[in-house]
Amino acid sequence: MISWFPLAEAPVPEGGLFDFDATLPLMAVQVVILTFILNKLFFQPVGKVVEEREGFVTTSHKDAKERLAQVERLERDLKAQLQKARQDAQAVIAAAEDEVATLYKTALAEAKASASKLREQARADIEAQRSVAAAALTKESRQLADLIIQRLVTI
Amino acid sequence: MLLQTLLPLAEALPASDPELVVEESHGLEIGQHFYWHLGQLDLHGQIFLSSWILIGALLSIVVAGTRRMERKPGGLQNLLEFLWDYIRNLSREQIGEAAYRDWMPFIGTLFLFIFFCNWGGALVPWRLVRLPSGELGAPTGDINTTVALALLVSLAYFYAGLSRKGLRYFEYYVEPTPIMLPFKIVEDFTKPLSLSFRLFGNIMADELTVSVLVLLLPLFVPLPMMFLGLFTSAIQALIFATLAAYYIGEAVHEEHG
């Protein structure tokens, strides 16, 4: 048929390496048909499965990423809350300590004041009694002295 | 040393003239075909027979592997998905993100068909089947098959360019400068020529080398050459598919700016 090589010029095909004939177009048709068959049987179904899986993996990956982000956000929130709670507790403790210190100081001052007042009073009492006693002693000693002088004079 | 071992073997052959050996011994049958006649048309029957067997093998693997598809692949499905991924990467790299989906089945079919033909030609013990004339072998070892494939590639890239860009496709011929016009026109002829002859030459040469070696020194000596042949066969399938994808990619490529 399409034979232009000298080896195949004879009416009865002699063969040869470069023997072109109807094998060529039929083989082309066969390969085109095979392309369509393989497209239906192989490329489309396998492609569908692979792409579905790729989609699944991508979605799962995105989901996981989102969840991770959420977890991180929650962790951050909780950490912040914990920090705040700690600070609050610290503040409460400090306030309580301050209050205690103030109370202690007030109580101490009051106690000191009352103690010094008592001491002053006691000292004043002692002073008064001593002066009374001294006065009585002076009077008595003068009487005694008078008595002694009288006796001596009478003798 | 080697010559001394070779000489008695050569003398033991039925005829000393190598041409005659080729014709008579049925060891080497180059350029002989098993003709089928379809009306006025002549067909190379052995090519169709072996290609049908190999296409059957390919299709049965595909059908068996895609029968029950699961999200977690195993066995044959895994292999098919690997092939699919391989072909997708190949066509995406060469054709580009925009158009590769349309051409992936074509590139994949070329790759799988050529790969199966090449390996089938090397691995299947075709000699067990006796034909009245010629012998079964790799369908890609016949110039008709490779030219058919190469012409399909030519048609494909013309169609790809024209359908994507319309008549603007022909801007490609004068793209950097109009001086390129004759070279680009010549390229349209050299592309199918080089594609077909590269594949044909490699497979043919490999089959010839192995047959000659088998004829001269049977059993273990041709084995390394056979392994080399398997390697070349796989590489040739890859080269053909890659170049086809590259030509299509060149045709659909959009110049920006």
What does this structure look like?
The complex is a heterodimer of chains A (155) and B (257). Chain A contains 1 helix and no strands. Chain A is mainly alpha-helical and 155 residues long. Chain A is rod-shaped. Mean pLDDT of chain A is 89; it is low at 1-10. With 257 residues, chain B is mainly alpha-helical. Chain B has a domain at 81-253. Chain B has a two-stranded antiparallel ribbon with strand order 1-2. Chain B is globular. The A-B interface holds A 1, 7, 13, 15-28, 30-32, 34-39, 41-43, 45-47, 49-50, 52-53, 56 and B 30-33, 35, 38, 40-44, 47-48, 51, 55, 58-59, 62-63, 66, 69, 71, 73, 77, 80-81, 84-85, 88, 104-106, 108-110, 112-113, 134, 139, 142-145, 147-149, 151-152, 204. Chain B: Belongs to the ATPase A chain family.
Helix content of chain A: over 70%
Give the tally of β-strands of chain B: 2
Helix content of chain B: 55-70%
Summarize model confidence as the mean pLDDT of chain B: 83
Overall spatial form of chain B? globular
Q: Please give the oligomerization state of what you see.
A: heterodimer
Percent strand of chain A: under 5%
Beginning-to-end CA distance, first to last residue of chain A: 197 Å
The fraction of residues assigned to DSSP E strands of chain B is under 5%
Q: What are the low-pLDDT stretches of chain B, counting only 5+ consecutive residues below 50?
A: 1-26
Structural class designation of chain B: mainly alpha
Please give the number of β-strands of chain A.
Answer: 0
Main sheet specs of chain B: 2 strands, antiparallel
**Structural Rg of chain A:** 63 Å
- Unreliable sequence segments of chain A: 1-10
Tally of alpha and pi helices of chain A: 1
Tell the overall outline of chain A.
rod-shaped
- Pair with the biggest interface: A-B, 37 and 49 residues
Please give the count of helices of chain B: 8
Topology pattern of chain B, helix = H, strand = E? HHEEHHHHHH
Could you tell me the radius of gyration of chain B in angstroms?
A: 22 Å
Organism (chain B): Synechococcus sp. SB0676_bin_10
Keywords (chain B): ATP synthesis, CF(0), Hydrogen ion transport, Ion transport, Membrane, Thylakoid, Transmembrane, Transmembrane helix, Transport
Protein name (chain B): ATP synthase subunit a
Transmembrane segments (chain B): 43-64, 103-123, 143-162, 199-221, 227-248
